[in-house]
Structures are given as C-alpha cells and as structure tokens.
Write a structure and sequence with these properties.
The protein is an alpha/beta fold and 339 residues long. It is built from 12 helices and 5 strands. Helices cover 65% and strands 7% of the residues.
C-alpha cells in the first residue's frame, strides 16, 4: 500500500471518526444527566398554606423549578392543556393529587411527580397522579412521534446522498423536483408505518402527512443545496444538523426543562422540535399550545432549503462543474450508505 493510498484511506476514515466524536458529545451532553431546569410547577389554592408550600418548593428547588400558585383545579388543568405547566399539586390532608400532561412529555411529568411525592410522603399519605391528556393506544409513552422523527430524518438525509451523487449530472431544478417527490414518499412511508401499522397515530392523518412532508422536504432541499459546496462532506454536515443537534433537542426524550441551556435554546427553533412539538400540540392538545408557531418554523426551514437550492443552482450555472466519474459517484453513495 502506497503513501497516497494511505492518505486516501485516512481522509475517508476522518468522516466516521468525526461522526463518532459528534455523536458522543451531542448525545451524552444532552442525555447523560437530566436535571430540572426551570420546571414549571404549580400549587393549587390561594390559602396561606398553599403559598407557603409553593415558596418552600421554590426555595428548595432553586433555578431548577418555577413554582407558582393557581386558584383552582380547573385553572391548573387549563394551564396544563396550554402546556404552560408540567405539573400542578392539589393539596389535601387525606388525598393529595398531582395533575400532569404526559402527552406533552412523559419524562417531564415523572420529574414533576418526583418533586411533589416528597410532600405527600411527608404527610404520610399516598399521592394520586392524574393525567389530564390522552394519547393514541399504540403510543402509551408518548414517544412514538420521536421515533417517527428518526425514521423521517434517516430517509431524508439518506436520499440526499443518492440525489447529490447519482444525480450530479442533472440540472439543479430537476434534482430539487426529485427531492420534493422523494420527501412525499418518505413521509408516506413514515405515516403509514406509524399510523395503520403500529397505531402511534390514530387521527388527523392528512395533517400529519403534510407536516411530515414539510419536515422531510426541508431537510432534502437543504441537503441538495449544500451538496454543491460540500460534496462528500455533505453527509457529515447533515448528520450534524439533523441527527446530532436535531434528535437531542427535539424534546422526544427530554424537553428543555430537563436539559441544559444550550439544548433548550435549540429546542425553541430547531426543525425536529418543530416537528415533534407541533404534532404533540395537534394530536394531543387540540391544535393549540403553540401549534401555529411550530408549523411556521417548519415553513422557515423549507424556505431555507429553497433558498440554498436557488443559490447552488446559480453557482453551478456560473462555474460549470467538471463531469463526475462513475467511480466517484459509487464511492460517495457507498460512504453515505455505510453511515
């Protein structure tokens, strides 16, 4: 083996090694130590005792919790449905109750239960936990939407590798059109498997399909646009954007109230969070609780993809890239498939 061949091999090995480093930093950084971070809680009641309990919980939790009081159980339920609260404690000498909305996040609801169970234990009475939301029969934990996100993401960025390499000789507008059609197929596969096959989704199939297409098309168009400039590094860039930073900030495992500020900040606008939280609001909170903002976010990501495709198309027209050899195409597809 010559020095040139070793350098060639080392150059290709750099991609999976960087992926390994990125995955370790992203996943361990996001998930290794879930700690409350401004967990929104409430104590129900306007009595001095309720206010003292809320203040005591706030003092004990520090910046990990944000504890307020609400006057009635109905008001607390409304705030849970609006996703402004994670848990609301209803004090009672014999039967204290914790209201949660597990459809918003099962792990956050469990964190709220941990926070208030100590109060009930101190009283020596059992804590009754009431879920004010209902989920699809095939998705008892509420995390099925996250796994749908994973399937759509892999199908989308995997398609970019094929379109960018095998379709390199096609005009940009043709590649973009193929990408849009591919997003339709990826979305159809995801919704059919998540819906009729496993029952993770049991309503609003047309809306879910449209949201899935928005998400997939955004990734594919961004990838097609980036491929013009990044070439074989496109897969690494897409995995960084739509796996490392995407899955960890989507809220599918832990929402921002159980993550540090970095991942919580990305959760506010990243496309995976727009997809997961948008579907949660649509399916479990009657289309409220920030659904419009999350849908608008997916349109922004799609617009970024359209803009990148337009810029890349103009760049290719001006620079007339040299023909891509069949061997180079096969190498890029093989490298992406291996990932």
């Amino acid at each position: 083996m010559t020095v040139t061949q070793l350098r060639h091999l080392a150059g290709h090995l750099l991609t999976p090694l960087l992926m390994c480093l990125g995955m370790a930093l992203a996943y361990l950084g996001a998930f290794h130590q879930p700690t409350p971070n401004h967990l929104a809680l409430a104590v129900v009641g306007d009595s001095p005792q309720a206010m003292v309990l809320a203040q005591t919980m706030q003092n004990r939790g520090g910046s990990g919790v944000d504890v307020i009081t609400v006057p009635t159980r109905e008001a607390a339920t409304d705030l849970l449905h609006e996703r402004d609260l994670v848990g609301a404690y209803v004090p009672d000498a014999a039967r204290p109750e914790l209201l949660v909305a597990t459809a918003g996040s099962d792990t956050s609801a469990m964190a709220a239960e941990v926070a208030f169970r100590s109060v009930a234990d101190h009283q020596g009475v059992p804590l009754v936990v009431t879920d004010v939301t209902s989920k699809a029969e095939g998705d008892p934990t509420g995390q099925g939407l996250f796994f749908l996100l994973v399937a759509l993401s892999v199908g989308s960025y995997g398609s970019v590798a094929v379109i960018g390499a095998a379709g390199a000789m096609l005009r940009m507008r043709v590649r973009a059109a193929i990408g849009v059609l591919t997003a339709l197929v990826v979305s159809l596969i995801g919704v059919v498997v998540a819906g009729p096959v496993f029952g993770v989704i049991d309503s609003d199939f047309a809306s879910v399909f449209g949201i899935a297409w928005l998400y997939s098309a955004g990734i594919i168009l961004i990838g097609i646009g980036l491929h013009t400039f990044l070439k074989r590094w496109t897969t690494l860039a897409l995995i960084t954007l739509f796996v490392m930073l995407n899955f960890t900030t989507s809220g599918g495992v832990y929402r921002p109230e159980l993550q540090n500020g970095f991942f919580g900040a990305l959760h506010s606008f990243w496309n995976g969070a727009d997809f997961v939280e948008g579907l949660r609001s649509l399916l479990y909170f009657d289309g409220g609780a920030g659904f419009s903002a999350r849908l608008g976010g997916l349109f922004v990501w799609l617009a970024v993809g359209v803009l990148l495709v337009a810029v890349a198309g103009r760049y290719e027209a001006r620079h007339a890239p040299a023909p891509v050899s069949e061997r180079a195409v096969e190498e890029e597809i093989g490298e992406s498939a291996a990932v």
